[in-house]
Write a structure and sequence with these properties.
The complex is a heterodimer of chains A (322) and B (503). Chain A has 322 residues and is mostly helical. Chain A has helices at residues 2-32, 37-42, 48-57, 64-76, 91-126, 131-145, 148-162, 186-212, 215-222, 227-256, 259-265, 270-279, 283-311, 313-321. In chain A, α13 packs across α14. The termini of chain B are far apart. Classes of the chains: A mainly alpha (322), B alpha+beta (503).
Chain lengths: 322, 503
């Protein structure tokens, strides 16, 4: 237990370092991007004098390191600052609502695709080269090859336009919360499921096949254990390892990278907010979004590692010894 | 495993608490509400307002005058009367008994503040240049304001109908509240604003005009994708979607519950840069004009007949304006175009890139049509389409041939100074023609209406002979549910929701 705690502390330490480095890189990247907030605001009518006056007024004329220092000093005390583009709008006031939406969408998708793809992956692996395997593998390949904006349009056409089961767009009616409109999550989550199902089920299938062909499973089968017991108690635990890695690695994307899905369904999440921030060169908002995505990504990697050690005692021991 | 589950639960609980922070409901019983899906606005504070979300700002803020969409005439709003002798001194009489949404009284100081604010360099005001001509402002009493201009501007009142010239309260801190708690004198007040997502506006109980607004609420959704907006309209979740494309219009025509209206035209300038090869030679510009076929452009761009919702000329003046002079169309003549090109030193034709905003309504269709029409005359056009923000920030103003969207101005002299006078800040074709400059100066300073009109006519002839543009006027398309009664949307671009009703 102590070792696990140490492990978590270590991970948190490296997360902090990652965040600092990450935030610096992003600051610099935005610096390199053509155009800045002053130019975005003045748009077509920008004369050099006007741009420079506005830059001065917004503190953009200070050296980049000074601006970075100012920003990170605020973050250190929990103040994400104001949007530099939308004057007077606190980032806290726009960010957290979207974060909530994105977490819920990611979790909904997670609840849908994880059991589904693991189940069918295992099934295909166990029934290797049988008809059910071919069907599952074909379906997995097909959904994997379909970009989410294609599968999304399919889903909309079938479930929203034809059957009218779900709303066409995932916009939250004004004054209502996401919770009174949970049905708007289904179609975006399904289209994410389409993308993820192929990856995860194929990964699960191949690792299942590998495990099923290993000596210890053969030994267990020869010992006369029931097949279902062998699969569930012995094979599955080991065959889950690569799958969990894949899922963990995709949590960051699920949380903040769903720009296409969010745009297609009009869902107010993190992805579209990040997109807006980048378009307007709004550094504090970009930083806030990216750092949150990094945190989620790191946390999910950490969870993956912990799960890993739970499933594979060998890793746990080695990790503790190191 | 337990730990994972508890982490997940913790995240879920956090998310729930954040999302449950709901707000006021959109619809209560017996309330009249108009729901609108608009593009996501960038900035919304007047002065730096980027011209998205017209329904929101146009309903919260007011101007000194508004335009009647049927007659095109200016009518009193916050100013009850205005007069000028020679165009260099303007006297406005202001409406009494008007209150801002925060309860403060509207008076001459507010108008003075609004105009002086244009020159504040820390704002980046988009109307700075147009108001540099104001030399001093007098406020003899609370409801009179006198503007003194450096030069006569007989049509200056139109400047005050520009959407960035909404009258602001001199006592309100727009620098820190303009984006989060916007406030004006308009018929609707902001009740709940979720930046980049939605806005709920409610009727202003203290609105000065009796019986207005007619509806109780405006619910405005900011939807980044036009197809998603249309889906909301088709499923009855919104009633109005402005700025749709021709393709969507065709699709909506089958729907009996929705009508597509075109209150006015917008311009697409096909602009040739005159200080660079090849368009520095007027013969090349003429050759290009001879290669065009307006009828084909109308059919293939908007599936409409020319002069029936779509117009074409070679000047900056829109066909629907009183200042327009009818000049017979050139007629397509590829042979003549080729000869002119050869004369200019391009016997084997000329290659030129054409830049345009691919996501602008009609942009791509127009670019492709122009490319095909110009090819037989010897113009090898390489199409360079970019999204609107990239096109405007990276390429516009610096390319030999471009297609740019321009809103029609109720007073064309504003546009002429900006885009066709040498030194104008949006002079995309870099034209600096002494004849044109002199005519533009005459137009903006001449107080006599008949004389001004004759300058306008002369200017259009010069443009026809040696100008730098082709002006295709495409319809502005707005999809409206049949439930909406009396949709009003004049050339000032500001829809007048206070007059509208829902069935």
């Amino acid at each position: 237990m102590n070792k696990t705690l140490l492990f978590i502390l270590k991970k948190l330490g490296s997360l902090l370092a990652t965040l600092v480095i990450m935030s610096f890189i992003i600051f610099m990247l935005v610096e390199i991007m053509p155009g800045d907030v002053a130019q975005m605001i003045l748009g077509q009518s920008a004369t050099p004098e006007a741009v420079s006056a506005l830059r001065e007024a917004r503190g953009l004329n200070d050296p980049v390191l000074k601006r970075y220092g100012r920003w990170i000093a605020g973050v250190a005390v929990g103040d994400l600052g104001d949007s530099i583009y939308m004057q007077g709008v606190a980032i806290n006031s726009i960010l957290w609502r979207r974060v909530g939406h994105s977490i819920i969408l990611a979790l909904t998708a997670f609840i849908m695709f994880v059991p589904l793809s693991i189940f069918f992956g295992v099934l295909a692996g166990v029934k290797e080269n049988k008809l059910s395997d071919s069907i599952i593998s074909f379906f997995g390949l097909a959904t994997m090859a379909l970009p989410e904006f294609v599968s999304g349009v399919f889903l909309i056409t079938i479930f929203a336009v034809q059957l009218k089961w779900f709303p066409i767009v995932s916009v939250i009616p004004i004054g209502e919360s996401l919770f009174s409109n949970l049905n708007i999550l289904i179609l975006p989550a399904l289209s994410i499921t389409f993308v993820m199902f192929g990856y995860v089920s194929r990964m699960q299938r191949s690792s299942m096949i590998q495990v099923m062909n290993s000596d210890y499973i053969r030994a267990a089968t020869l010992k006369g254990m029931p097949r279902s017991y062998v699969i569930l108690r012995h094979a599955l635990k080991n065959a889950l390892l690569p799958t969990i890695t894949i899922i963990g690695m995709n949590m960051g994307w699920l949380f903040g990278g769903l720009i296409v899905v969010e745009t297609l369904f009009g869902f107010p999440g993190m992805g579209s907010l990040l997109m807006i921030a980048i378009k307007t060169r709004d550094v504090p908002l970009i930083e806030a979004c990216v750092l949150l995505i990094t945190v989620i990504f790191s946390l999910s990697t950490m969870t993956t590692d912990i799960l890993y050690s739970f499933l594979n005692p060998r890793i746990r021991l080695q990790g503790g010894q190191r | 495993m337990k730990r994972t589950i508890s982490i997940m639960l913790l995240i879920l609980v956090l998310a729930v608490s954040v999302v449950f922070a709901g707000g006021d409901k959109e619809e209560a019983k017996d309330e009249k509400i108009i729901r609108i899906a608009e593009q996501v606005p960038g900035l919304i504070t007047p002065g730096v307002w980027d011209g998205q979300a017209f329904s929101m700002n146009g309903s919260m803020y007011e101007y000194l005058a508004e335009m009647n969409p049927d007659t095109g005439e200016l009518e009193p709003l916050l100013a009850t009367a205005w007069e000028t002798e020679d165009g260099s001194t303007w006297k406005f009489t202001l409406r009494k008994g008007v209150k801002f949404h925060d309860g403060s009284d509207f008076n001459a100081q507010d108008v003075k503040y609004t105009i002086e604010r244009t020159q504040d360099p820390t704002i980046g005001h988009l109307k700075k240049q147009d108001f540099e001509v104001v030399s001093s402002i007098e406020t003899p009493d609370n409801h009179t304001i006198i503007l003194h201009l450096d030069e006569p501007r007989p049509t200056f009142v139109y400047q005050l109908t520009d959407y960035n010239m909404a009258i602001l309260s001199s006592e309100y801190d727009y620098a820190s509240l303009g984006e989060s708690k916007p406030m004006g004198t308009g018929p609707f007040m902001m009740q709940q604003l979720i930046p980049k997502e939605s806005a709920l506006l409610v009727r202003n109980p203290n609105y000065w005009a009796e019986g207005l607004p007619i509806v109780d609420k405006l619910a405005i959704y900011f939807v980044p994708d036009i197809d998603a907006s249309i889906s909301m309209l088709e499923s009855g979740r919104v009633d109005v979607v402005p700025f749709i494309t021709q393709v969507i219009k065709t699709r909506l025509e089958k729907n009996p519950d929705i009508k597509v209206i075109s209150p006015y035209q917008e311009m697409r300038f096909i602009s040739m840069r005159v200080d660079e090869k090849p368009f520095d030679d007027n013969r090349v510009r003429l050759a290009f004009k001879y290669a065009m076929d307006p009828q084909i452009i109308a059919r293939s761009v908007a599936q409409m007949d020319l002069n029936d919702g779509i117009f074409y000329n070679e000047t900056p003046i829109m066909n629907i304006l009183a200042e327009y002079k009818e000049i017979p169309l050139r007629g397509r003549d590829t042979k003549k175009a080729k000869a002119l090109l050869a004369e200019a030193g391009y016997p084997n034709g000329v290659s030129v890139p054409m830049y345009y905003a691919s996501d602008h309504p009609f942009g791509k269709e127009l670019a492709q049509t122009v490319q095909e029409l110009a090819a037989p005359a010897g113009f090898d056009i390489d199409l360079k389409g970019y999204t609107r923000d990239i096109y405007l920030s990276q390429y516009w103003m610096n390319v030999p041939l471009s297609i740019t969207g321009w809103a029609g101005r109720p007073d064309p002299s504003m546009l002429l100074l900006l885009a066709f006078r040498g030194g104008g800040s949006w002079n995309e074709s870099h034209i600096d023609n002494p004849k044109i400059n002199a005519l533009i100066d005459n137009i903006s300073e001449e107080a006599n209406e008949a004389k001004r009109l004759s300058y306008y006519h002369e200017l259009q002839e010069v443009f026809y002979e040696e100008g730098s543009l082709i002006d295709v006027q495409v319809p502005l398309l707005i999809a409206v549910s049949n439930k909406i009664v009396n949709y009003r949307h004049p050339l000032t671009q500001i829809p007048q929701y206070k007059y509208m009703d829902v069935k």
